[in-house]
Write a structure and sequence with these properties.
Chain lengths: 274, 373
């Protein structure tokens, strides 16, 4: 009977009827929360009981030898790979395991791939335009017009990534480093809360690396940034917090100095370089 | 407005200017010149040109999906033929009791096959408005269902091309069957009039030619409107880096579906205008070879330009008319040879030739552009 009463109570809104609130709830601190995540491919445990917490506004570097599960972890966060067990939360409200890739992107998680993929046939400006946070359904996209405030936002990002003079050049003619910056710019256009950056300085010259370090540190604070990188010099130049991954789980966590003095870490990773 | 944007664009203005000038010149030469003059354009030629314009519209539709979306459809003939059949069914119903058997309701081939009543799917085709809606709806619905299934399963590239080829082949076999109720092998023919105009008069033929020209202009503007909109840039993004586009938050399969359906509808309109001008529609329009030929027109004219598709369709079909008149057996060799030559020497097609010529004259290429070339 009580169920019947509850059903006929017209003041009540059932939980499944309320739309999911989209703002990310970071009142408890962390913006990204991975707990006991495991995933295996054909018996190989790529991620093994991984626990990771990223705070709002943090710049975190993730290092680890090849096969440590860095890219798989990114795949799980962006919805490309589903873990076998564990939970992944964005803020304290969004369960990422129930969402599709485009949904996760529109929640505010942007990902930069290892190999820069920009739309080579389109200009730098158009690349940023497509990446802009907007209604991305078919008909609104068809009827979209370039408003002055959009143009302003694109100019702002062009300034940040230093490609202002190349705005109407096709992205295909950019150098490797410039493509990487354009990709980061495309992420910024989406006004993400969390940026996942996969090996941003691979194949860059010294000057390009310096500029990239400046860019990434200037982004932290406004948004959370997770950088996966092999280049230890680069990690040292930007990192406050470093997480070392090994065989799919966290081996050590702390500042660069703490981590690089950890005997375990020296054994599995840094030792190779020393 | 996305539809009026192309009208402010110089390339579209130029295209429409050339197209309308051609329509006016042909009309003037047809109506004003004495019949024995060398400049006189006969009614036969007017219809032939009308046919080329239908092919041009079909080529534009194919270029929209192939050039800008990266979907190589080898089955656009199916949409063309479906539009043609919708028009053909209307024209059959217009014959009324003037057929050979004089049945007021049933088309001749149904009387011949001893059918007692009109199949349900022929109902409504006696009304022009219904038939004209079906011209858009029949190919559009097929494209919607086919595209929904294919794009949702992320079938792309050569696999999609093969499925589109299979689609048109399956439809050809189906339409060959008499039991389908579309005239089987012989198709639909012996048309008398369209909207009350006698199809055999010169005036109606000229009218159809002009209507096709206007349809091509509208189709071109619609396609141009799509490719110059933000959606057009998203299409190009899907073409070049599908996974990346998905990560930006676009529903790639819906973009593909929308553009594919629009393209199928344009192909249907082209088919509908084609049928009254050639006077027949039969299952051979579904043949896989025809669909492949359309792709060759687009490749020859220049992919991802739209106007290149028009140039390609008209030039190749003019060549076909001339060649099949002189040496019927040599035509396929000529077409094949042309295709090889253009692919090797003009990878961007005839339109690419026009474009690069203009570029070297107007502005020197920057070193960066040379580096990518």
């Amino acid at each position: 009977m009580s169920i019947l009463q509850e059903l006929t109570n017209r003041d009540q809104v059932f939980e499944f009827l309320t739309p999911e609130v989209s703002p990310v709830d970071v009142r408890h601190g962390p913006i990204l929360y991975l707990e006991d995540v495991s995933v295996s491919f054909d018996g190989f445990k790529a991620i093994n009981n991984l626990n990771l917490t990223i705070d709002d506004g943090e710049l975190r570097c993730i290092i680890g030898p090849n096969g440590a599960g860095k890219t798989t972890m990114m795949d799980i966060i962006t919805g490309k790979t589903r873990p076998d067990t564990g939970s992944v939360w964005f803020g304290s409200r969004h369960n990422l395991l129930t969402k599709s890739e485009p949904d996760i992107a529109s929640l505010g998680i942007g990902r930069k791939f290892q190999k820069p993929t920009v739309f080579e046939a389109l200009t730098v400006f158009e690349n940023l335009e497509l990446a802009m946070a907007a209604d991305k359904r078919v008909f609104p996209t068809l009827t979209a017009v370039m408003k002055p405030e959009y143009r302003g936002r694109i100019d702002e990002v062009l300034e940040m990534i230093g490609l202002k003079d190349l705005r109407s050049a096709p992205a295909g003619i950019l150098s490797h480093g410039q493509k990487q910056w354009l990709e980061i710019g495309m992420l910024l256009m989406q006004r993400p809360r969390l940026l996942l950056v996969d090996e941003p300085v691979a194949g860059m010259t010294e000057q390009e690396m310096e500029r990239t370090a400046e860019l990434l540190t200037s982004l932290a604070g406004k948004q959370s940034v997770v950088v996966v990188e092999h280049d230890m010099g680069f990690v040292r130049s930007i990192a406050r917090q470093v997480t070392v991954l090994h065989q799919g789980s966290v081996l050590a966590e702390g500042t660069m100095d703490q981590v690089s003095n950890d005997p375990e870490v020296i054994k599995v990773y840094l030792g190779e370089e020393a | 407005m996305w539809l009026t944007r192309p009208l402010r664009e110089r390339s579209t203005q130029l295209f429409l200017g050339v197209l309308f000038a051609a329509l006016i010149v042909v009309t003037a030469l047809h109506l004003l010149m004495p019949q024995d003059s060398a400049l006189y354009v006969s009614s036969y030629t007017v219809t032939l040109l009308g046919k080329y314009l239908c092919y041009a519209l079909l080529a534009v539709a194919v270029d929209l999906v192939w050039g800008y979306l990266g979907i190589l459809s080898l089955g656009h003939g199916a949409f063309f033929a479906l539009g043609g059949y919708a028009m053909g069914m209307y024209l059959m119903r217009q014959i009324g009791d003037r057929g050979v058997y004089g049945d007021p309701l049933l088309p001749d081939f149904m009387v011949f096959l001893n059918w007692q009543e009109l199949p349900w799917y022929w109902l409504g085709f006696d009304m022009a408005w219904f038939a004209f809606i079906m011209v858009l709806l029949a190919p559009g619905l097929l494209a919607l269902v086919f595209g929904f299934l294919a794009f949702r399963s992320r079938v792309t590239g050569v696999y999609l091309s093969i499925i589109t080829q299979a689609l048109t082949f399956a439809l050809m076999l189906a339409f060959f069957r008499n039991e389908m109720g579309f005239g089987g092998n012989n198709g639909l023919t012996d048309f008398k009039d369209l909207l009350g105009f006698d199809l055999r008069t010169d005036a109606t033929r000229l009218g159809l030619f002009l209507a096709t020209g206007i349809a091509l202009a509208i189709g071109y503007v619609v396609c141009r409107g799509i490719v110059t909109s933000k959606l057009g840039r998203v299409s190009v993004a899907c073409r070049d880096a599908e996974a990346r586009t998905r990560f930006l938050g676009y529903r790639v399969e819906r973009v593909q579906l929308f553009v594919f359906v629009v393209s199928a509808m344009l192909a249907g309109v082209a088919g509908a205008l084609y049928v009254p001008q050639v006077g027949i529609i039969n299952p051979s329009e579904f043949s896989p070879l025809f669909s492949i030929e359309v792709v060759v027109w687009v490749a020859l004219g220049g992919r991802a330009t739209l106007y290149g598709a028009v140039i390609g369709a008209i030039l190749v079909n003019y060549g076909k008319t001339v060649f099949t008149g002189i040496m019927p057996d040599a035509w396929l060799f000529a077409l094949g040879g042309l295709f090889v030559l253009v692919t090797v020497f003009l990878p961007k097609g005839i339109a690419g030739l026009l474009f690069t010529r203009k570029k070297t004259k107007d502005e020197p290429t920057t070193p960066a552009q040379e580096a990518t070339a």
